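ZP: hey, is the S-adenosylmethionine complex queued? I don't see it on the tracker
AM: it wasn't, my bad. submitting now with these inputs:
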Amino acid sequence: MSGIDRKTFERFRDLIYEKSGIALGSKKEALLTARISKRMRALQIEDYKSYLDYVLNDATGNEVVQLLDAISTNVTSFFREADHFDFMTEILQKRVNEGQRKFRFWSAASSTGEEPYTIVMTFSEVIDPSLCDVRLLATDISTRVLEKAMRGEYDEEKVQTIPTALLHKYFDRIHTPSGTVYRVRQELKRLIAFRRLNLSVTPFPMRGPFDMVFCRNVMIYFDNDVRRKLLNEIYRLLKPGGYLMVGHAESLTGMMSEFKTVRPSIYVK
Ligand SMILES: C[S@@+](CC[C@H](N)C(=O)[O-])C[C@H]1O[C@@H](n2cnc3c(N)ncnc32)[C@H](O)[C@@H]1O
């Protein structure tokens, strides 16, 4: 595959922004071509302009989904930014002591599932889910990561950040021909509804209201316009007194949102 010309790159960039809100920088040609070349090989398409035409002419919209799957960065891990889960434990204990028995959570960019499973493990350590009405909505734009999340199977390297006691309690260790995998138990899986949702297209269809929303490490890919609309939607869908967690590298400073800061990366309605 030869290089990508400027015009084709810019048309890809505009299309990706329009469909996902992901703002690729002007010097990201190498990133774009590295990410789409595997898909192009699978389709036996040799040049970038032909692939762009293929995406644009696909009336089913499926190829746009494939393109966004290839573009999005899905890096995640169990108990990533662990202080959020300590904070969650603290708040939940308080709410449970006050008698609250219905909880709604949302993992807004759930990637391959590590974040939503961490949320339900954290919850289950505070109160037995069978004693209350608890649900987690886990959404992502990428169908590929959603499928992986729904499967709920992780290799040994991925589960290393899970405390051993929780790993034994919530995962089954399975031996397969390609190695050992850890499979999330049904009791956790059944608390989660996985759905495809594009965070750049507002308003969102769900009703909420949520007790806590985790929208972590995804706003970094958006420009301020998309971020602002997204934050307004999250604000609308949270209960009064509900919390928003964003990634440690993210901040709502300058976003003119109505959230109040609890501590860096944690906000309250
Ligand atoms: C870096 S991962 C973050 C995963 C997790 N929240 C965490 O902090 O570990 C970013 C995720 O955002 C998703 N994403 C990117 N653009 C999106 C959009 N417009 N709507 C919904 N999800 C999006 C990607 O598919 C990817 O799974």
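AM: back. The chain has a mean pLDDT of 93.
ZP: great, adding it to the tracker
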